[in-house]
Amino acid sequence: MRSTLRAVSSVVLAGLLLAACSSATTGSSAVSPSGKPPAPAPPASGAQGGGSAQEIAVGAGPQTTYTVQKQPPAGSCHYRTEKGEPLEDLACTPGAISPAVTQGNLKSTICRKGGYTSGIRPPASVTGKEKALNAASYGYKGPMGDAEFDHLISLQLGGDPNDARNLWVEPPDPGHKSGAGVNNAKDPVETKLHTAVCAGKVSLTAAQKAIVTDWTTALSTLGLS
Questions:
Q1: Is 61 left (phi over 0), alpha (psi -120 to 50) or beta?
Q2: CA 178 remoteness from chain centre
Q3: Which stretch of 13-17, 161-165, 205-209, 219-223 has the lowest confidence by average pLDDT?
Q4: Nearest 5°: phi and psi at 121?
Q5: Dihedral sign computed on CA atoms, order 47, 100, 199, 191
Q6: Are 172 and 147 in contact (CB under 8 A)?
Q7: Crossing angle for the helix pair 186-198 and 204-213, nearest 10 degrees?
């Protein structure tokens, strides 16, 4: 009888030990030694994902009727400078592109003969009000006639026409005579980038990202200076 009980006990004990080992093995992949779930493995090289913060926002694109867009709160935006040239506040004016302009339709949009931007530009009745509000956002105190209500990504580079993220009151260049009107060094940069994009020298996306990063270095960054 005792030998029988000992045999049964040995079998039960072996079963319990086997179950415990199996449980520990299956649980090891879900729980780390600290008792916390392990950190997810990093994505494999070339996998999509991440980097979305570097992508430029997409606006609403050209509209049949434009309305005045809400601007950042007064005093919340701050100019930066690079070699004396004014730069936008990255938080207030990160840029926005138009979904109507793509690399595949350049010939029928920004590169088409006869022009493109005049047909999609918001009217002064809208941009005039936005400009006054944006000047308050940036704390601009100079003559309004000397400041350009600028598309960070210009319309000729596929920038969104009326997205508040793509518009800012750009002060005049250093040494500008007060009352002499708008005269910004950024404008010729935009024209050169547009020419390069339409000539196939640089991609639309590369030009957009270069001017958003720093318009004063956009040409040199793309090897166009």
A1: left
A2: 33
A3: 13-17
A4: -75, 130
A5: negative
A6: yes
A7: 160
Asked whether 173 and 184 are in contact (CB, 8 A), the reply is yes
CA atoms of 19 and 172, how far apart (whole Å): 78
49 CB neighbour count, 10 Å cutoff:
6
Q: Which of 184, 183, 186, 208 is nearest to 110 (CA)?
A: 208
Tell me the pTM: 0.75
Residue in the block written with tokens 């010729």: 188
Q: SS3 letters for the chain?
A: CHHHHHHHHHHHHHHHHHHHHHHHHHHCCCCCCCCCCCCCCCCCCCCCCCCHHHCCEECCCCCCCCCCCCCCCCCCCCCEEECCEEECCCCCCCCEECCCCCHHHHHHCCCCCCCCHHHCCCCHHHHHHHHHHHHHHHCCCCCHHHCEEEECCCHHHCECCCCHHHEEEECCCCCCCCCCCCCCCHHHHHHHHHHHHHCCCCCHHHHHHHHHHCCCCHHHHCCCC
pLDDT band at 49 (very low <50, low <70, confident <90, very high): very low
Residues 161/154, Cβ–Cβ less than 8 Å: no
**Cα distance from N-terminal residue to C-terminal residue, the chain:** 99
